[in-house]
Design a protein that fits this description.
Elements lengths: L4 H22 L6 H17 L6 H25 L14 H4 L4 H19 L4 H20 L6 H9 L2 H10 L4 H23 L2 H7 L4 H5 L3 H22 L4 H20 L5 H9 L1 H17 L3
Helix pairs in contact: 2-3, 2-8, 2-15, 3-5, 3-6, 6-7, 6-8, 7-9, 8-9, 9-12, 9-14, 12-13, 13-14, 13-15
C-alpha cells in the first residue's frame, strides 16, 4: 500500500522530534542544576568586578556563554562516559548509553556548541579570550580524568569556577587577587558538592573503575565534607572582607551556612537519594550568596 505524502511528512517530523529531544537530553536541558552551579559564581564575579553595575552586554554574553558551555560540557562528559553510564543505575538512560544518540552526533553537537561559544567570545577583550582557551581545555579534559585521577572533582571545580577570572578580565581588563580568591572558593565548593553527587553513585563507580573523591574519602567522607563546608564559609567571609562587602552579603553567607548544615544533616546516613538531594540543594547556596551581593550593592550608600 502506498504511503501518502502527509504520512511521510508526519513520520519525518516524528523522527526529527525524537532526535532533537535526544540532543536536548544530552545537553541536560531537562536538568538545569549544572547551569545554576556554573552561573551563580559567574554572577558573583560580574557584580563585584562591575561594582554593582556590570556592563549589560558583558552580562548577556556571560549568561549565554554559561548556558552554552554547560551544555557542551555535558555532551563531552557523556561522550567520555558512554561505555560506563549504562552500568550505573542513575545514568543508564542517558542518550549515548541507550543508543538514542550516536557518538558521532554527540561530537558534531559539541562542535556546534563550541562555535557558538567562540562567536560569543569574539565580542570580549583579548585577555578574556585567552582565559577562555584554558576554560575550554578544562571542560574537555575533566571527563577523561575519571579513569586515572583519584580526585577528578578538583578539575571539575577549576572548570566550574573559571568564569570568575574571565568575568573580572571582561569587566576590568585584569584579574586581581580577589578574583583568584573567589576562584579558589568555588573550587572548594565544587569539590564539596560534587563529592555529594559522587556519593550517590559510589558503589557503581567503584565496581566499574571510575574514580571520585567519594571513593577516595571512604568512611572519612562525612568528616572531610564538614571540613570543606567550614573552609568554604571561611573563604566566603574572606571574600567579603577583601571586596569590602557589607551586612547584606554577610546575611547571604549566614543563609548559605544554614543550607550547608541542612545538607550535612541530610547525608548523615549516606543514603544515595539523600546525598543527591543535598547536591541539588547547592543551587540555593549559590543563590543566597548572589542575592547578598546584589542587595549589598543596591542598598550601598
Amino acid at each position: 500500500m502506498a504511503i501518502s505524502t502527509s504520512d511521510r511528512s508526519r513520520g519525518i517530523g516524528a523522527e526529527l522530534s525524537r532526535q532533537l529531544l535526544g540532543y536536548a537530553r544530552l545537553m541536560r536541558l531537562d536538568r538545569p542544576i549544572g547551569t545554576w552551579l556554573l552561573l551563580w559564581p559567574t554572577l558573583w564575579a560580574l557584580w563585584i568586578a562591575g561594582e554593582g553595575r556590570p556592563d549589560p552586554q558583558i552580562l548577556l554574553v556571560f549568561v549565554a556563554g554559561t548556558f552554552v558551555m554547560r551544555s557542551a560540557g555535558c555532551v563531552i562528559n557523556d561522550f567520555a562516559d558512554r561505555r560506563f553510564d549504562g552500568q550505573v543505575a542513575r545514568t543508564r538512560d542517558r542518550p549515548l548509553a541507550t543508543g538514542e544518540v550516536a557518538p558521532v552526533e554527540a561530537l558534531m553537537l559539541f562542535a556546534a556548541l563550541g562555535l557558538i561559544a567562540i562567536a560569543l567570545l569574539l565580542t570580549l577583550n583579548e585577555l578574556t579570550r585567552w582565559l577562555a582557551v584554558i576554560g575550554a581545555a578544562l571542560t574537555i579534559v575533566y571527563p577523561f580524568t575519571k579513569r586515572f585521577f583519584v580526585a577528578p572533582q578538583l578539575l571539575m571545580g577549576a572548570a566550574f569556577g573559571w568564569g570568575i577570572p574571565m568575568a573580572f578580565a571582561a569587566e576590568t581588563g585584569s584579574v586581581p587577587r580577589l578574583a583568584w580568591l573567589m576562584w579558589l572558593t568555588v573550587v572548594v565548593w565544587a569539590v564539596m558538592y560534587d563529592t555529594l553527587y559522587a556519593m550517590a553513585d559510589r558503589e557503581d563507580d567503584a565496581r566499574i573503575g571510575v574514580r571520585s573523591t567519594a571513593i577516595l574519602f571512604g568512611r572519612a567522607d562525612l568528616f572531610i565534607l564538614s571540613l570543606l563546608q567550614l573552609t568554604l564559609l571561611l573563604a566566603l567571609l574572606l571574600v567579603g572582607q577583601v571586596a569590602s562587602l557589607g551586612r547584606w552579603y554577610y546575611a547571604g553567607v549566614a543563609v548559605a551556612a544554614a543550607l550547608l548544615l541542612y545538607q550535612r544533616l541530610l547525608i548523615r546516613d549516606r543514603e544515595p537519594a539523600h546525598c543527591f538531594q543535598a547536591f541539588l540543594n547547592n543551587r540555593h547556596v549559590g543563590a543566597a550568596i548572589a542575592v547578598g551581593i546584589f542587595l549589598d550593592y543596591l542598598y550601598r550608600g
